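Note to self: keep these together.
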Amino acid sequence: MMRMKAIWVVLVALTAFSGMPQPKRPPIHQLQLCVPIISQHSDELCWAGCTEMVMRYFRDSSWNQCSLARENYILYYTTLFAPPTYRDSMLADTASIMCHGDSVPDQYNMQGYPFFVPYLASMNVLPKYALRSPSSCPWDTILAAIDRNQPVIFQWNAGPVDQFDSAHAGSHFMVADGYATTEHLGTSRWVSINDTWPQSTFGKAGQHAQIAYNNFNYTSRSYSPWSNGAIMNSKGAVYIVGLR
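Structure:
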């Protein structure tokens, strides 16, 4: 299967948050999916980086971030409520602005959703994938998804994992690909995540970390008008990805 038992003997070295609870004992139960770490290739493409990570996990290399970003551009302007002349002029660019390797043309550096969520069903894009979007992400939901070999893409109101700031950061997509439980008093549940930041188009970047579940599901009243938590539950921005 596309998963392995991870030996999380020292989570401290992999934890990205200074000052947060640290596990003191080896885990008593853990599971880690083999989701590759892939960086985002432009500043708006965390959604595309997460999509590419999960597709590679399912051994699908038919898309890269540039082709995903180009398709997102086309879908956006195809469905945009605007005069046809404006839509046509924007879409005309796609005939001449093509993808070359991992670099992404500036025109395609747009915000989006993993697996083209707004268009997945209506436009029949990426039909082999099935996404579930629960309204929240409790611990049991993470365990059940990972146990089924289904990575969890989530949107966080706290920026990249190494810049945790729910009051000032913008939203950011990452991938939860594992979990662990320990006997450490106070913090016994841990989530393994892949982050597409820092971005890079040359070589490997991005980062991997284990964070306490209560930080993964952090709550704060300081960030509005989104939900009152780091995970943007009110926007339905938790996506459990499987195959049809």
